[in-house]
Amino acid sequence: MKIKTIAALSLLIALAASAGERALAETAEETGYAIAARSDRTDLGFGDSTVELRMILRNAAGQESERALSIATLEKENEDVGDKSLVLFATPRDIEGTALLSYAKILEPDDQWLYLPALKRVKRISSANKSGPFVGSEFAFEDFTATELNKFDYRFLLTEACGDLQCDVVERLPRYENSGYTKQIAWVDHRDYQIRKVEFYDRRGDLLKVLSLDDYRQYGNGVWRAHRLTMNNVQTNKETDLVYSDYQFGVGLTEDDFVKGRLSRLR
Amino acid sequence: MRRSIGVLLLAAAVWAGSAWADESWDFAGSVDLQSRWFTQDARWVGQEDRVGQFSIAVSAEARWRSADGRRRASFIPYLRWDDTDDERSLFDLREAHVAWEGSGWEFLAGSNVVFWGVTESVHLVDIINQTDAVADIDGEDKFGQPMLNLTLQRDWGLLGIFVMPYFRERSFAGPDGRFRTPLPVDTDRAWFESSAEENNVDLALRYSHYFGDVDLGVSLFSGTSREPRLQPDATGTALLPHYDRIDQLGVDLQVTRDAWLWKLETILRNGYADSFAAAVGGFEYTFYQVRETTADVGVLLEYQYDGRAATEPATIADNDLFAGARLALNDSQDTAILAGFALDLETGETLFNVEAERRLGNDYVIELRARFFTGAGPGELTWAVARDDYLQLQLSRYF
């Protein structure tokens, strides 16, 4: 026991010592992973959360339509599984009460159930559809769920200015099946370690969408959340804004709140 | 009816008594303007021969939840008026219930609608609610069922126990209406096997859970059959619904793998002259983002089997193949089209069905349906409705 502890400690010290000369010793892949991991760690330990979300869809002519939804999230138990989440729609009115329950996985397909209030029907749905538009928006379902560290392989590209901040630019390649992207390029800032911008490249390798993440706020538990996300489809000129409000953490959600049997009892 | 009114009054009292400021209310509703356009003259004496049939349906929804989230109530009255068929004009309490929730359990009292099952073309396992059959021939419109319902959520799955003190009768087209039997059904003279008639207490149990990519449901029902046999009356001028007592075991299963959904529903029913089994099984496969657009195309194929004897409540889904395709554009207006047919492999009777819908602006939905019947000879089941081919245009406003 003692020997193990000492061994672990000395390993930690060795790692810490080597961190300083990381840029020299590491490959671009290792550096990229380390940047992503550092950013991912700022999100650990939030437990559970609820948030209200306004989704504004804008077509190329500038016409807008809106959806309002709420999202409840239960943090993963460990890095081998993903978070559990529950999305509940309030508007448009004809789909009010529609709910989507997801158990995110790392490399296997997620488990998903959809609740259709008109029929009061719970339907297990295929999660192979990662890259299709989510409720008609410019966001694909994978854009929400693929935030788990181990869903990608990484490669550090360069460091450059991003607005007022300095950012590491990291390429990430999806490791999970059915992704609509060949690669993504993410800008991670040096101050808060948050992702400020992501470029998405389609199956032909062309730039498809650009996501900007703004209005970051840090909560009492230390986690950061962007409150305004804008996804711009550069091929169609369509755009979707996500405006988050009323984040609540540690509201006491449990596994029982994320079961398919609850979907018909949410309202 | 008295008993269910009692349950409702109790529900209303608890609901009203506990409503104060920091609790949340949610109001919603919809108005549907529906027109049906028939392409052929009516077949039976007494049916209105108008080309167009118009109806308006109003649904209001009031929901309440206590500040601690442990108590909730729902009140959803539904009213429909039809210009041709008096039997299609009706009032229903789809939902009127209160519910208490604890850790791993919920108790609900009052009227509610529940859905069981996985398949698309026919819903064998779904038995709690009576079908509002005159609303639509697809059988997906339901009446609220008065019940006491205890739900237990455990690691091993979900167990629902239902005690249903009042029976709801099925709606049928009146003498004026389309989709009628050769003799009209007189719903005022229904016959019940149970001496308690509609006050017979029906019981049901359902277990459901998932195991990896398998979703399983097992259900038991004991009570008055939701499907009546239709028997001519003494004078031979009307058909009377006969509601037998039945016991039914139901199993529903779905395996979800990649873009495949494999589905099976099967029932074993006892209570008529003979017991019988029925099953429906098949798959749904979806091609996502076809031809590099944002649209999805799903293909559905289901086989329907039903072993019931001719003396039992009639079904068209006895040896039939259902095939369909669903196109979802995934645009901001949620445009979707479903087209398909059900073919009777024995008689060749075929029902063609197309349903298309699209949201207009934020609050309106427009829906088009077309249904056509072919292949029925005299004496076959769909012969009675073979001239009721129609187009339906519906505009719904949501609040």
- Residue runs with pLDDT of under 50 for 5 or more positions of chain B: none
Question: What's the alpha carbon Rg of chain A, rounded to whole Å?
Answer: 20 Å
Q: Approximately how much beta-strand content do the residues of chain A carry? A: 35-45%
Report, as a whole number of angstroms, the end-to-end distance of chain A: 52 Å
How many individual domains of chain B? 1
How do the helices and strands line up, and which of them pair or pack?
The complex is a heterodimer of chains A (267) and B (399).
Chain A: H1 2-19, H2 22-25, H3 28-41, E1 48-58, E2 64-74, E3 84-91, E4 99-103, E5 111-116, E6 121-125, H4 141-145, E7 152-162, E8 165-174, E9 183-189, E10 195-201, E11 207-218, E12 224-233, E13 239-249
Antiparallel strand pairs in A: 1-2, 1-13, 2-3, 3-4, 4-5, 5-6, 7-8, 8-9, 9-10, 10-11, 11-12, 12-13
Chain B: H1 2-17, E1 24-38, E2 52-65, E3 71-82, E4 90-102, E5 105-112, E6 145-154, E7 157-164, E8 191-192, E9 202-211, E10 214-224, E11 229-232, E12 239-243, E13 245-257, E14 260-270, E15 276-287, E16 296-306, E17 319-328, E18 336-344, E19 350-360, E20 364-374, E21 390-398
Parallel strand pairs in B: 8-12
Antiparallel strand pairs in B: 1-2, 1-21, 2-3, 3-4, 4-5, 5-6, 6-7, 7-9, 9-10, 10-13, 11-12, 13-14, 14-15, 15-16, 16-17, 17-18, 18-19, 19-20, 20-21
